[in-house]
Amino acid sequence: MDGDEVEVVVAHNEHATLRVGDVFVKIDADQTRSDVEVEAMALAPIPTPEILWRKPPALALAALPGTALGHLGEPSPASPAAWAAAGAAVRILHDAPLPPWPGQSLDELAARLADECEWLVANDVLPADVVTRNRRLAETALRPWTPVFIHGDLQVDHVFVAGDEVTGVVDWSEASQGDALFDLATLTLGHKEHLGDVIAGYGVDVDRDLIRAWWSLRCLTNVRWLAEHGYGSPDGFPEVAVLRAQ
After folding, report:
1. What is the pTM of this model?
2. N- to C-terminal Cα separation, the chain
3. Smallest Cα–Cα separation from 69: which of 56, 88, 82?
4. Between the N and C ends of the chain, which has fewer C-beta atoms within 10 Å?
5. In this protein, which residues make up the domain named Aminoglycoside phosphotransferase (predicted)?
6. What is the pLDDT of residues 26-70, one digit of tens each?
């Protein structure tokens, strides 16, 4: 790695990710998140980054080959076949044995949704009618489901592809038991034109209305965190654009 520069990939007051050559070093103040990430990658039946070493609070991972499937707020350069391959990989994960730790309960999700909606209106981040419309939609996602092994933060940036093949999935610290449709919604958030490709690869017909409901819920509950962690003005967030379009 001699001569390689240090690239700051993510940095805020909870955790940071640095890249030096082909090595990513994740530094996390909460070692529980790192524990989950390490165990989830060991359990996941799909490609994940190789762990090079771990010296808390740092975790070093090898870079995956290929490039991210896309980025939120930008058109994806990946082919429909690559998106379908991502859907197939998600199906393999969801068919795997459950991880031994639970995810968020319906009550916890509902309470967080209520708190975030109140904050959005109180701080004039979005018009009340936009928040109300999306909250009603989001609440339809909060129904009983059969839990599966979910990634929990399956942003399009976290899935890597080379050509039409998935080379790996990164950032497993939110993995848990949860609703399969949450992963599918997170993957396709802001990329609804590829929802059909993902579902085709997933191989099971799913309720697209519930995926749209999860889009609303994820966006409503993410805006404050992004605003408070230095990601700029909410007006420019892709999540806000999704909420306005829903």
Report:
1. 0.95
2. 46
3. 82
4. N
5. 44-198
6. 999 899 999 999 999 999 999 999 999 999 999 999 999 999 999
